Amino acid sequence: MATIGEASLRSGVGIETIRYYERKGIVPKPGRSGNGRRVYSPSEIANLRFVKRCRDLGFPLHVASRLLVISMGEQVSCGEVQDFGQAQLMETRSKIAELENLRTALEELVSNCEEGSTNCPMLEKLWSQ
Amino acid sequence: MATIGEASLRSGVGIETIRYYERKGIVPKPGRSGNGRRVYSPSEIANLRFVKRCRDLGFPLHVASRLLVISMGEQVSCGEVQDFGQAQLMETRSKIAELENLRTALEELVSNCEEGSTNCPMLEKLWSQ
DNA sequence: TATGCTTCCTGTAGTCGCTACAGGATCAAG
DNA sequence: CTTGATCCTGTAGCGACTACAGGAAGCATA
Questions:
Q1: Contact at 8 Å (CB) between B35 and B55?
Q2: Does A86 touch chain B (CB under 8 A)?
Q3: Between A78, A96, A107, which is nearest B119 by CB?
Q4: Conformational region of residue A36, where left means phi above 0, alpha means psi within -120 to 50, and beta covers everything else
Q5: A54: Cβ–Cβ under 8 A, 6 or more apart, which residues?
Q6: B113–chain A nearest CA distance, Å
Q7: Which nucleotides of strand D are protein-proximal, with an atom < 7 A from a CB?
Q8: Mapping DSSP to helix (H, G, I), strand (E, B) and coil, where does residue B30 land?
């Protein structure tokens, strides 16, 4: 049984963020000690770590929450889990593609700065067309 | 001289977003007609288009605003403009690198779904260690 | 002229995932 | 007994919008 500070250290989730997850119902509410402080069991700390893992992979909070619920449930609906993974992968791939277009555009924009043909070639490009 | 609706169409910036930019001081306040409605000159519409161009390139609003101010000013400080461009390029590159790590991790995670070794291999992976 | 549709106005609240207080209570160590 | 760390609740801020509510005009048709 741990305090919120210990739970934070062991899970890697910030204290304020832990309370936020609780408020949002992402993780179940922990018990309280006599003085009203939150008390975390090892499995509750593991839950926090699980959510953090999901977040680090880019899953939105509501998906992390759903994955946690699925994990807790009787029979695991593996198909739904796989769907979330696939969706997140697609999302990530399309974000990469988008950012690569941006990178190309920015590289071209910045490269204009070398040629001092106008007052400020980059601004010119931004205004042109 | 155009209404906000026309300005929105011609600039590609949504009506609510135009008003938001005005509130935030990103673009100068337009004039008003007798009945209190906003009236946009062609150059004010161009300003909106400029901000949109910046946003599409990933620049944060305060940078777009600064670039607009620089453009309006007497002498253009080309160095500052170039710095913004370089910073945005670096930012974009590091975001891409980050997302590529995520993609790799997700691909591995999802690939586990094929091997039905456990109840749900993806969840197992998320909990493990 | 009356009606009805569209556009416009202001102001406020919601989104997402935190993060940072303010103002207070309690605990552990010296 | 005091000091400093940790905890509590509640609220507000971030960025960049987006979505109303509730009302005032404008424009076209009957």
A1: no
A2: yes
A3: A78
A4: left
A5: A63, A64, A67, B126
A6: 7
A7: 6-10, 15-20, 25-26
A8: coil
Q: Which tokens is B74 given? A: 């007497």
Task: State both tokens at B93.
Answer: 């590159």
Protein residue at shortest CA distance from C1' of D7? A37
| Yes or no, beta carbons of A103 and B110 under 8 Å apart | no
Q: How many residues appear in chain B? A: 129
Per-residue pLDDT tens over the stretch A88-123: 999 999 999 999 999 999 999 999 887 766 778 899
Please choose, from the candidates B56, B57, B79, B81, the residue with its C-alpha nearest in 3D space to the C-alpha of residue B68.
B81
Cβ contacts of residue A73 below 8 Å, gap of 6+? none
Q: What's CA A98's distance to the chain center, in Å?
A: 19
Q: Which of B119, B121, B129 is nearest to A73 (CA)?
A: B119
HSE-CB of B20 using CA atoms within 13 angstroms = 8
Q: What is the pLDDT of residues B82-94, one digit of tens each?
A: 999 999 999 999 9
Structure tokens at A97: 């593609």
Q: pTM of the entire structure?
A: 0.90
3-state secondary structure of B48: helix
Q: A55, A70, A19, A71: which is closest to A40 by C-alpha?
A: A19
* Token couple for B83: 């710095």
Beta-carbon separation of B96 and A103 below 8 A = yes
The answer to whether A69 contacts chain B (CB < 8 Å) is no
How far apart (Å, rounded) are the C-alpha atoms in residues B56 and B69? 18
Q: How many CB atoms lie within 10 A of CB A115?
A: 8
